[in-house]
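Example 9 (inverse folding). The structure is encoded as follows.
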């Protein structure tokens, strides 16, 4: 393993003492100095500007570019202690885009096109709970609380814990999945039970499934999260409840789903329970999203989603 330079080690220490998430730390360890071929503490604002122009020319996305800007501002302002430089490193103005949302039938077709049992159940959980991909892959078996009908999300985005609702139907699916695969620690383990499933596996499953399902929309894991929130809003869920379930720090992030939700008179009937969201409280689990019927199954999922669902038994975990 290559030895860390003192400057790189200092950057890692600065991020660690500020409790930045591992994902943020990885994104901040950019290849700024490699582009110029010399140490970044010898590079100034003109070099930063040239680096940003280079990134835009490569076609980098605006969110990714702004993430690099955050890293540069942190490096110069915190690690190098140049208080004046960070304010001169400008963020890019991101174009306002509406989220891509699938209809209920498109969600069914999409999930049916996933051949892998583990990936299908993980993505089903994403749609049924609105979890981020980084949250669903780190779910533990013990996070499923069938007594309170909630799922615990530990250290989600921003280092915040929260609970999401667990529907009776999703609980049945997860219990059947647990009986078939018997995960021990991680609900969706990777290769070897010691590590969780890699998020790239779910991203790859989405790419292949959206082609197999014949959808003309680009479908990602986050598309299922968008669809979850939009379908709830179309079924009269309180937008503040949706904010809590999604783990949004700002209501403004949740409000954009109102721009893609169809009007009550024009929308198709979505397969959701008819609970009264006006009386809902996040700490008071109520009936939740009712998942769809499965039309076609692979040999493995035929056992899982057959008409006879296994009866819940007392197990070491709540799953």
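The amino acid assigned to each position is listed next.
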């Amino acid at each position: 393993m290559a030895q860390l330079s003192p400057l790189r080690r200092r950057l890692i220490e600065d991020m660690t003492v500020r409790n930045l998430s591992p994902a943020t730390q990885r994104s901040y360890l950019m290849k700024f100095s490699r582009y110029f071929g010399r140490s970044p503490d010898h590079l100034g604002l003109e070099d930063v500007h040239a680096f940003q122009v280079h990134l835009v020319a490569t076609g980098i996305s605006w969110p990714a570019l702004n993430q690099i800007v955050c890293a540069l501002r942190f490096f110069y302002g915190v690690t190098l202690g140049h208080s004046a430089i960070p304010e001169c490193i400008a963020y890019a103005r991101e174009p306002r885009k509406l989220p891509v949302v699938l209809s209920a039938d498109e969600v069914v077709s999409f999930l049916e096109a996933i051949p892998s049992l583990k990936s299908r159940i993980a993505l089903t959980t994403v749609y049924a709970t609105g979890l981020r991909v980084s949250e669903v892959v780190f779910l533990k078996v013990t996070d499923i609380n069938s007594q309170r009908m909630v799922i615990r999300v530990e250290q989600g985005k921003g280092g915040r814990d929260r609970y999401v609702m667990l529907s009776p139907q999703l609980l049945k699916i997860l219990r059947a999945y647990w009986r078939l695969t018997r995960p021990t620690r991680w609900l969706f383990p990777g290769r070897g039970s010691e590590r969780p499933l890699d998020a790239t596996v779910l991203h790859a499953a989405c790419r292949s499934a959206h082609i197999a399902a014949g959808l003309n929309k680009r479908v990602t894991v986050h598309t299922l999260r968008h669809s979850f929130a939009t379908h709830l809003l179309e079924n009269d869920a309180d937008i503040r409840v949706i904010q809590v379930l999604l783990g949004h720090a700002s209501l403004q992030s949740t409000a954009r789903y109102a721009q893609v939700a169809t009007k009550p008179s024009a929308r198709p009937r979505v397969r959701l329970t008819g609970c009264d969201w006006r009386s809902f409280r996040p700490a008071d689990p109520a009936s939740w999203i009712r998942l769809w019927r499965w039309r076609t199954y692979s040999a493995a999922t035929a056992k899982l989603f057959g008409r006879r669902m296994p009866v819940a038994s007392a197990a070491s975990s709540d799953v």
